[in-house]
Amino acid sequence: MKKGILNYTKNELKELLNNIDIPKFRADQIFIWIYRYGKCSFSHMTNLSKTLQDQLDKEFYIYRPRISNVLESADGTLKFLLELEDKNAIETVFIPEIRPQLNNSKKWNRATVCVSSQVGCSVGCKFCNTGYNGFIRNLSVEEIISQFLIVKDYLKLWDSEDRLSNIVFMGMGEPLFNYENVLKSIENLMSDEDEGLSRRKITLSTSGISSVLLKIAKDIPCRLAISLHAPNDGIRSPIMPINNIYNVASIIDACEEYTKYHEYLKITIEYLLLKGINDSKDCAKELVKLIRKLNAKVNLLQFNSWNGCQFEPSDQKSVNEFSEILKNAGIETTFRARRGEDIMAACGQLAT
Ligand code: SF4
Fold this sequence. Notes:
The protein is α/β, with parallel strands linked by helices and 352 residues long. The protein is 33% helix and 20% strand. The strands form three sheets. The protein has a ten-stranded mixed sheet with strand order 3-4-5-6-9-10-11-12-13-14, covered by helices on one side.
């Protein structure tokens, strides 16, 4: 049976090739064809002999999911509905950021791909449409990586000046519950230095699985975003039941540990403002006390409503007051505008 070549890291591929008498250095060439030039067929890898192309073709395939649908938002965000081999579906979101000073030859200043790590999610955050729909299975390495590659295929970016500058693991699923595959995916996506995807351009967002967070500090060379959404267990547990296992204190301890290894990488604290739940001035003050000792910034998020949810977004006055308290305490604070809301591609809205 053929093997999916995207499932292997470069070192693993070298070993596999070695076992079938192909020199290990061919793995370097194959990786460049796949990750820099987006080739989906060995016959297009022109510095490999025809015999070698045929041999690779007998052993491996280069995976892409099927695009079932693409929805385009008024703000340029694209939501891809992708069908996997077993007919399960996942969603991937492309988010361009266009600023006025844009050089004419480029379409955007920065473009982020938000990838899924699982089909569904078992964490069950009450405000999240993905969690509401339950968990089906983990994604394989090739299913994670191919989300990024297929966006490049679709937008015809392989020969373009425009790049996908950032990847965030913020789509469907809790990445730390699919730890090994997410780790390998990050390693492969960072394998081509020319592509410019460094550790600073990849962000892993987690609901705070503190036991695995301690491992991440050593294993994963990327940015970290923690979906905290509350300053204490009393508020967090009802909206994020996972907090009954991994509570606020354990998450903060794990973040401190992460900072020891990655002093220069600021942690992002994601905070979704829910009207009357976690958006009071007292909550803001408590949050300041909680995270003051961390090297962290806060990203306030506007809640995006979906059919059947029980929450409402905070009003502008509460958002401003909350934000001011954080800023006055010297905490870098941003407020993330809704992106792709009209196509249900905004944070917490992904569900096939
Ligand atoms: Fe899962 Fe993230 Fe949704 Fe929580 S917010 S249920 S972790 S996908």
